[in-house]
Amino acid sequence: MNQLTGLAPVSHPDARALLLGSMPGAASLAQQQYYGHPRNHFWPMMAELFGFDAALAYPERLQALQRNRVALWDVLQHCERQGSLDSAIRNETPNDFAGFFQRHRQLQLIAFNGKKAEDSFRKLVLPKVMLPKTCSLLVLPSSSPANAGISRPARLQAWSQLVEQLQ
Predict the structure, then answer these.
(1) Which of 24, 29, 60, 108 could form a disulfide with 56 if both were Cys (CB 3.0 to 4.6 A apart)?
(2) Is-above-0.70 flag for pTM?
(3) In CATH, what number is assigned to the domain containing residue 95?
């Protein structure tokens, strides 16, 4: 098993939504970029939902999310995993959500990119950290190319809840 360390959060203090994955896959960790696998549906969906070009350079895509008051992070700071599948994650250590919530007092929504992110958050974070009072939770279908059981239109429709809840 490989010991992995996740990426730093991408956020601005006025963020209203926090999108959480579980742990970046191997391609993302190698590039040090969220959702770096070329077949991941995340960036094309975000571009369509928030009205920017998915072909923008990575820093500009991050800026587009921040302009829309969306932060990115992962539930896990460290874990062991062989490959990139969530099902292979072992020995999880969560990120510092108490500190994040202190710095992001306007959060209204925590959205999970897949069930594993939600499960890890409920197991490792919720028992120890108080959510911001105005914060709701939303589980979305994974944007991973491994999640082939959902069509692109159905995935996009589910993810449109993110935009709806931010309005």
Answers:
(1) 60
(2) yes
(3) 3.40.470.10
For the record, the structure tokens of 53 come out as 């070009």
User: What pLDDT is attached to residue 37?
Assistant: 92
Count of structural domains, the chain: 1
6 phi and psi, to 5 degrees?
Answer: -75, -175
Dihedral angle of Cα 156, 69, 64, 24, to the nearest 10 degrees: -70
Strands 2-5 and 76-81: antiparallel
Residue 109: how many CB atoms within 10 A of its CB?
21
Residues recognised as catalytic: 40
The answer, yes or no, to whether residue 80 has pLDDT greater than 80, is yes
Chain centre to alpha carbon of residue 85? 15
Q: What is the maximum alpha-carbon separation in the chain? A: 43
Residue listed under structure tokens 């490959």: 83
With a pLDDT cut of 70, the percent of the chain lying above it is: 99
Instruction: For residue 19, give its domain range.
Output: 2-166
